[in-house]
Structure formats: structure tokens, C-alpha cells
Write a structure and sequence with these properties.
alpha/beta; 43% helix; 6 strands; Rossmann fold
Length: 229
């Protein structure tokens, strides 16, 4: 599924790949409509009916992920509202073991996320994730989302890489297709990003896993450190 011997860099999505997407889904589909309803004197279902189409219209664009944009458009402090449900932020199964194995193997690990810097900081405070990887890049630093093929060219400025020896792991099929089109040699889909929802069907061309324990044994075999075997 992954040719570890050919790699020197592993790009990792954050939400839905390393962290449970339940936090984000709960916030946008449940918590935000309640707070929006309170602010605008609406019934929660009416707020949801107004919000969801508005949000979905921006899907795939940088605005979709931009906390500043939604704070201004909805007249609410989105980052503060996310903090209200911050106890839901957490790792997906086997992630810490996987990240430890990556480090032990000598592979470079870089989080490449569409998450806006403000909620990114919130998630790092809750998880300490930054201590487990070599670097973190937000698409907001480059002004374009990972779905944009030009993102991967511009990423070279912040996290130089050789496409032929790089793996991208993400729960978004459009992002993985974008990475593959940009020449990323190996792509891997996460099929169960939200612990509270059913896993998705597999991509017809990109291999997928439900959890990292499916690829941990092969990764550990690559490691030169006896303690990580």
C-alpha cells in the first residue's frame, strides 16, 4: 500500500487524518447553528437551513476554511465559538504511534493543512501535535487551498520536497487528486475521518486505510532503530 523504502518526506493532513473530524463536523453542523440562532433570534433548525447552504457554497475554496471570513460574514467570533467545544478535539486511533514510528524511521513529517491559523493554534494547544512532527504549513500562508494544483508548487517555498519521494496522506479525495496531479509519487486516503460516522467508500484509484494500524507494521520494519520495531 505504501512503499516506505522510496520515501524521504511524508505530508500529513490534520483534520480527519491525524485529528478526529468529529470536532469540526460537530462545530459546523451542530454548535454553530445553535449559537447563530441565539444571535439572530432564530429557531436552531432555521439557522441550520440558512447556514449549511451558505457554507457549502464555498466548499473547496480558501474561504471555506477561513475563520476570519466566516467571523465577518456571520458576525460571530468563530474561533471563540470553537473554543467552547474544544474538549472534542482529539487524535484519531493509532495516530500517536504512527507519528512516533515516522520519527523513529528517519522520515521527515510535515503537516500540510487547510486549517486557518487561529483554530490551528487551538488544536495544537489541546493536542501538542506540533511536538510530534517536523513542521506545520497552513494553506493560508500560501493564499490557496490544497485543492488548487498551484498549491503544491508554492509549497516548495515553505517545505521543499522531492515529489518522487513524497507521500501525501489525507481524508479528502479532491486534495489527494490535486497532489497526485502535481506529481506527488504516493497518495493515501483516510476512509474513516469522523469517529461518529461510517467509513466512506474507497477511491477507485487511490489506496485507502481506515486507521494507521494498517500500515504501522511495514513502517516499523523500515525503522533503523531497534526500539521502534
Amino acid at each position: 500500500m505504501v512503499d516506505w523504502s522510496s520515501l524521504d518526506t511524508v505530508f500529513l493532513d490534520m483534520d480527519g487524518t491525524l485529528l478526529d473530524l468529529h470536532f469540526d463536523n460537530h462545530f459546523w453542523l451542530e454548535h454553530l447553528p445553535v449559537r447563530y440562532a441565539e444571535h439572530h433570534n432564530l429557531r436552531p433548525q432555521d439557522a441550520r437551513d440558512r447556514l449549511i447552504p451558505m457554507i457549502m457554497a464555498e466548499r473547496g475554496s480558501l474561504k471555506w476554511y477561513c475563520t476570519d471570513y466566516w467571523s465577518e460574514r456571520l458576525a460571530l467570533d468563530i474561533t471563540a465559538l470553537k473554543a467552547e467545544v474544544g474538549d472534542r478535539i482529539g487524535y484519531r486511533p493509532h495516530v500517536t504511534e504512527f507519528l512516533d514510528a515516522l520519527r523513529a524511521s528517519g522520515l521527515r513529517s510535515v503537516i500540510v493543512t487547510n486549517c486557518h491559523p487561529d483554530p490551528l493554534a487551538l488544536k495544537l494547544r489541546h493536542t501538542g501535535l506540533e511536538a510530534r512532527v517536523d513542521a506545520i504549513v497552513s494553506s493560508h500562508q500560501l493564499g490557496k487551498p490544497k485543492e488548487d494544483p498551484a498549491f503544491w508548487r508554492d509549497l516548495q517555498r515553505l517545505a521543499p520536497y522531492q515529489a518522487g519521494s513524497t507521500l501525501m496522506v489525507d481524508d479528502s479525495f479532491p486534495v489527494l487528486e490535486s497532489a497526485r496531479s502535481a506529481g506527488i509519487a504516493q497518495c493515501l486516503a483516510v476512509l474513516a475521518p469522523d469517529s461518529q460516522q461510517q467509513a466512506r467508500a474507497r477511491h477507485p484509484e487511490i489506496p485507502g486505510i481506515h486507521h494507521f494500524d494498517e500500515i504501522l507494521p511495514a513502517l516499523r520494519q523500515r525503522s533503523p532503530l531497534p526500539s521502534s520495531r
